[in-house]
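Example record

Each entry pairs one chain with its bound ligand, 2'-deoxycytidine-5'-monophosphate.
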Amino acid sequence: MHKITIAIDGYSSTGKSTLAKQIATELGYIYVDSGAMYRAVTLYALQNGFISENNFNANDFVMVLHEIELEFKFNPEIGFAEMYLNGENVEQAIRTMEVSSFVSTISAVPEVRYQLVKQQQKMGKDKGIVMDGRDIGTVVFPDAELKIFMTASPEVRAQRRYDELTKRGDKVNFNEVFKNVQERDYIDSHRADSPLVKADDAIEIDNSNLTLDEQFQKIMELVSMTLESYE
Ligand code: DC
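C-alpha coordinates for the complex follow.
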Protein backbone atom coordinates (compact mmCIF):
# COMPACT_ATOMS: atom_id res chain seq x y z
CA MET A 1 0.00 0.00 0.00
CA HIS A 2 1.18 3.55 -0.77
CA LYS A 3 2.78 5.15 2.28
CA ILE A 4 2.23 8.78 3.09
CA THR A 5 3.59 11.41 5.45
CA ILE A 6 1.19 12.86 8.00
CA ALA A 7 2.09 16.20 9.59
CA ILE A 8 0.23 17.31 12.70
CA ASP A 9 0.87 20.83 13.93
CA GLY A 10 -0.83 23.07 16.43
CA TYR A 11 -0.70 24.90 19.72
CA SER A 12 0.60 23.30 22.89
CA SER A 13 -1.57 20.72 24.64
CA THR A 14 -4.03 20.32 21.79
CA GLY A 15 -3.65 16.56 22.08
CA LYS A 16 -1.47 16.28 18.98
CA SER A 17 0.66 13.47 20.32
CA THR A 18 -2.28 11.38 21.54
CA LEU A 19 -3.85 11.65 18.13
CA ALA A 20 -0.61 11.09 16.24
CA LYS A 21 0.07 7.91 18.26
CA GLN A 22 -3.43 6.58 17.55
CA ILE A 23 -3.03 7.16 13.81
CA ALA A 24 0.46 5.66 13.71
CA THR A 25 -0.75 2.54 15.54
CA GLU A 26 -3.75 2.18 13.22
CA LEU A 27 -1.63 2.49 10.08
CA GLY A 28 1.50 0.71 11.35
CA TYR A 29 3.48 3.93 10.78
CA ILE A 30 6.38 5.39 12.77
CA TYR A 31 5.38 8.08 15.25
CA VAL A 32 7.76 10.94 16.02
CA ASP A 33 7.14 13.53 18.74
CA SER A 34 9.31 16.41 17.48
CA GLY A 35 8.53 18.43 20.64
CA ALA A 36 10.38 15.76 22.66
CA MET A 37 13.54 16.65 20.73
CA TYR A 38 13.25 20.37 21.55
CA ARG A 39 12.48 19.42 25.15
CA ALA A 40 15.58 17.18 25.36
CA VAL A 41 17.81 19.97 24.02
CA THR A 42 16.28 22.29 26.64
CA LEU A 43 16.96 19.74 29.37
CA TYR A 44 20.59 19.62 28.27
CA ALA A 45 20.81 23.42 28.46
CA LEU A 46 19.34 23.37 31.98
CA GLN A 47 21.54 20.52 33.21
CA ASN A 48 24.70 22.11 31.88
CA GLY A 49 24.25 25.62 33.24
CA PHE A 50 23.30 27.43 30.06
CA ILE A 51 20.17 28.77 31.70
CA SER A 52 20.54 30.57 35.00
CA GLU A 53 18.16 32.94 36.74
CA ASN A 54 16.13 33.22 33.57
CA ASN A 55 19.19 34.12 31.51
CA PHE A 56 20.04 32.14 28.45
CA ASN A 57 23.09 32.80 26.30
CA ALA A 58 22.25 31.44 22.85
CA ASN A 59 25.71 32.17 21.43
CA ASP A 60 27.45 29.98 24.01
CA PHE A 61 24.84 27.29 23.72
CA VAL A 62 25.11 26.81 19.96
CA MET A 63 28.82 26.06 20.41
CA VAL A 64 27.95 22.86 22.32
CA LEU A 65 25.08 21.64 20.16
CA HIS A 66 27.41 19.01 18.67
CA GLU A 67 27.65 17.40 22.15
CA ILE A 68 23.95 16.60 22.15
CA GLU A 69 22.96 13.20 20.85
CA LEU A 70 19.26 12.50 20.55
CA GLU A 71 17.77 9.12 19.86
CA PHE A 72 14.29 7.63 19.89
CA LYS A 73 14.39 4.05 21.20
CA PHE A 74 11.40 1.79 20.86
CA ASN A 75 9.95 0.59 24.17
CA PRO A 76 8.00 -2.61 23.44
CA GLU A 77 6.13 -2.33 26.76
CA ILE A 78 4.35 0.86 25.72
CA GLY A 79 4.52 0.29 21.98
CA PHE A 80 6.24 3.63 21.27
CA ALA A 81 9.68 5.13 21.09
CA GLU A 82 11.09 7.08 24.03
CA MET A 83 13.49 10.00 24.00
CA TYR A 84 17.14 9.40 24.92
CA LEU A 85 19.57 12.23 25.53
CA ASN A 86 23.23 11.18 25.29
CA GLY A 87 22.25 7.59 26.03
CA GLU A 88 19.90 8.31 28.95
CA ASN A 89 16.14 7.84 28.93
CA VAL A 90 14.72 11.34 29.55
CA GLU A 91 11.11 10.68 28.69
CA GLN A 92 9.93 11.76 32.18
CA ALA A 93 12.53 14.46 32.77
CA ILE A 94 11.59 16.42 29.63
CA ARG A 95 7.93 16.79 30.67
CA THR A 96 8.42 18.95 33.77
CA MET A 97 7.19 22.54 34.16
CA GLU A 98 10.80 23.69 34.33
CA VAL A 99 11.52 22.32 30.85
CA SER A 100 8.17 23.68 29.60
CA SER A 101 9.12 27.14 30.87
CA PHE A 102 12.27 27.33 28.75
CA VAL A 103 11.57 25.14 25.75
CA SER A 104 10.06 27.88 23.59
CA THR A 105 13.10 30.12 24.13
CA ILE A 106 15.49 27.33 23.14
CA SER A 107 13.28 26.38 20.17
CA ALA A 108 13.52 29.88 18.78
CA VAL A 109 17.29 29.55 18.22
CA PRO A 110 17.83 29.04 14.45
CA GLU A 111 20.85 26.71 14.89
CA VAL A 112 18.83 24.44 17.19
CA ARG A 113 16.03 24.29 14.64
CA TYR A 114 18.43 23.65 11.78
CA GLN A 115 19.97 20.64 13.54
CA LEU A 116 16.67 19.13 14.64
CA VAL A 117 14.85 19.67 11.34
CA LYS A 118 17.70 17.87 9.55
CA GLN A 119 17.29 14.84 11.87
CA GLN A 120 13.50 14.89 11.50
CA GLN A 121 13.69 14.94 7.71
CA LYS A 122 16.04 11.96 7.80
CA MET A 123 13.55 10.01 9.96
CA GLY A 124 10.81 10.68 7.42
CA LYS A 125 12.71 9.97 4.24
CA ASP A 126 10.89 6.65 3.61
CA LYS A 127 7.43 8.06 4.45
CA GLY A 128 5.04 5.96 6.56
CA ILE A 129 5.46 8.48 9.36
CA VAL A 130 3.24 10.60 11.59
CA MET A 131 5.10 13.53 13.12
CA ASP A 132 3.66 16.17 15.39
CA GLY A 133 5.06 19.59 16.25
CA ARG A 134 4.82 23.23 15.23
CA ASP A 135 6.51 23.43 11.82
CA ILE A 136 6.06 19.93 10.43
CA GLY A 137 3.68 20.84 7.60
CA THR A 138 5.40 24.13 6.83
CA VAL A 139 9.15 23.40 7.15
CA VAL A 140 10.00 19.78 7.95
CA PHE A 141 7.68 18.07 5.45
CA PRO A 142 6.17 20.78 3.23
CA ASP A 143 5.21 18.01 0.77
CA ALA A 144 3.36 15.88 3.35
CA GLU A 145 0.29 14.30 1.76
CA LEU A 146 -1.87 15.06 4.81
CA LYS A 147 -1.48 18.07 7.09
CA ILE A 148 -3.61 18.66 10.15
CA PHE A 149 -3.63 21.84 12.21
CA MET A 150 -5.07 21.33 15.69
CA THR A 151 -6.57 24.02 17.85
CA ALA A 152 -8.57 24.23 21.09
CA SER A 153 -9.30 27.07 23.49
CA PRO A 154 -6.42 27.98 25.87
CA GLU A 155 -8.59 27.09 28.90
CA VAL A 156 -9.33 23.59 27.58
CA ARG A 157 -5.66 23.05 26.75
CA ALA A 158 -4.41 24.26 30.13
CA GLN A 159 -6.89 21.96 31.87
CA ARG A 160 -5.68 18.98 29.83
CA ARG A 161 -2.06 19.78 30.63
CA TYR A 162 -2.85 20.33 34.31
CA ASP A 163 -4.67 16.97 34.49
CA GLU A 164 -1.74 15.25 32.78
CA LEU A 165 0.83 16.74 35.20
CA THR A 166 -1.17 16.12 38.38
CA LYS A 167 -1.97 12.57 37.27
CA ARG A 168 1.72 11.76 37.21
CA GLY A 169 2.17 13.34 40.66
CA ASP A 170 3.65 16.75 39.77
CA LYS A 171 2.66 19.57 42.14
CA VAL A 172 1.52 22.40 39.89
CA ASN A 173 -1.15 25.03 40.10
CA PHE A 174 -3.64 25.65 37.33
CA ASN A 175 -2.78 29.34 36.83
CA GLU A 176 0.89 28.52 36.39
CA VAL A 177 0.03 25.93 33.73
CA PHE A 178 -2.44 28.30 32.02
CA LYS A 179 0.18 31.06 31.91
CA ASN A 180 2.79 28.67 30.49
CA VAL A 181 0.41 27.49 27.74
CA GLN A 182 -0.28 31.11 26.73
CA GLU A 183 3.38 32.13 26.85
CA ARG A 184 4.47 29.18 24.74
CA ASP A 185 1.72 29.90 22.19
CA TYR A 186 2.94 33.46 21.95
CA ILE A 187 6.65 32.69 21.56
CA ASP A 188 6.04 29.72 19.23
CA SER A 189 3.83 31.84 16.94
CA HIS A 190 5.96 34.98 16.94
CA ARG A 191 9.53 33.69 16.57
CA ALA A 192 11.37 34.78 13.43
CA ASP A 193 12.45 31.27 12.38
CA SER A 194 9.67 28.80 11.46
CA PRO A 195 6.87 30.27 13.57
CA LEU A 196 3.82 28.19 14.31
CA VAL A 197 1.41 28.93 11.46
CA LYS A 198 -1.16 26.83 9.71
CA ALA A 199 0.16 25.60 6.36
CA ASP A 200 -2.06 26.81 3.49
CA ASP A 201 -2.99 23.23 2.66
CA ALA A 202 -3.52 22.04 6.27
CA ILE A 203 -6.95 21.02 7.53
CA GLU A 204 -7.85 22.80 10.76
CA ILE A 205 -9.54 20.83 13.53
CA ASP A 206 -10.79 22.51 16.71
CA ASN A 207 -11.09 19.70 19.23
CA SER A 208 -12.36 21.79 22.20
CA ASN A 209 -15.64 19.89 22.09
CA LEU A 210 -14.61 16.60 20.51
CA THR A 211 -14.03 13.36 22.41
CA LEU A 212 -10.83 11.50 21.63
CA ASP A 213 -12.84 8.95 19.71
CA GLU A 214 -14.73 11.54 17.65
CA GLN A 215 -11.48 13.26 16.81
CA PHE A 216 -9.82 9.98 15.85
CA GLN A 217 -12.74 8.98 13.56
CA LYS A 218 -12.67 12.38 11.88
CA ILE A 219 -8.96 12.19 11.16
CA MET A 220 -9.12 8.57 10.00
CA GLU A 221 -11.70 9.64 7.39
CA LEU A 222 -9.21 12.21 6.12
CA VAL A 223 -6.44 9.59 6.14
CA SER A 224 -8.60 7.14 4.14
CA MET A 225 -9.53 9.81 1.60
CA THR A 226 -5.88 10.76 1.20
CA LEU A 227 -4.78 7.14 0.80
CA GLU A 228 -7.57 6.45 -1.73
CA SER A 229 -6.41 9.35 -3.86
CA TYR A 230 -3.10 7.50 -4.33
CA GLU A 231 -4.62 4.13 -5.33
O1 DC B 1 4.85 19.52 21.50
P1 DC B 1 5.44 20.05 22.81
O2 DC B 1 4.50 20.94 23.56
O3 DC B 1 6.03 18.99 23.65
O4 DC B 1 6.64 20.99 22.31
C1 DC B 1 7.44 21.69 23.23
C2 DC B 1 7.98 22.95 22.59
O5 DC B 1 8.90 22.64 21.55
C3 DC B 1 6.97 23.90 21.96
O6 DC B 1 6.46 24.84 22.88
C4 DC B 1 7.74 24.56 20.87
C5 DC B 1 8.83 23.58 20.51
N1 DC B 1 8.60 22.88 19.25
C6 DC B 1 8.98 23.53 18.10
O7 DC B 1 9.42 24.67 18.15
N2 DC B 1 8.88 22.88 16.91
C7 DC B 1 8.40 21.64 16.84
N3 DC B 1 8.32 21.03 15.65
C8 DC B 1 7.97 20.97 18.01
C9 DC B 1 8.07 21.63 19.21
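The radius of gyration is 17 Å.
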